[in-house]
Amino acid sequence: MTNDVRSCIEEDLLKVAVIERHHLTGNIGLGMLKGLKLQKGAIATTISHDSHNLIVCGTNDADMLEVAKQLKNIGGGIVVVNEGKVLAQIALEIAGLITARPAHEVVSELSLLHEALEQLSPNLGFNPFLTLSFLTLPVIPSIKLTDKGLFDVTIFDFIPVTE
Questions:
Q1: Which of 25, 36, 101, 115 stands 20 to 30 A from 107 (CA)?
Q2: What total of structural domains would you count in the chain?
């Protein structure tokens, strides 16, 4: 994941990518996200309304690439990576959205996921995966990220990430 878009941890600006995962188009929309408060590593999920593409956000390209690869390996879900190492994950092997595994297993993995998030961003105070999931919903105002780029719902057009 290389280009001119780079995270700036000091300014709480993180690179975010939406990667199309259903039709092998190769589409990758890039943007910047302020307010996620990650201090290191990367997070990703395939729960991203409405398209349920893969959404990745991180402090560096290497961890962003690793978290995306891990999501592919597990068939979708939620993953947290730091320094190239998977800290926690929840496999959602049915369309990257749900699992048939017992609830107690998923609850245990969810607990580990929250612990891993604490390592990347102590005292976060909100669910960053929920934030990412709705960042990709281009039918609600105002600026959303799709696999085709940054979309301004109010003018119903794509806009540049950088000028």
A1: 36
A2: 1
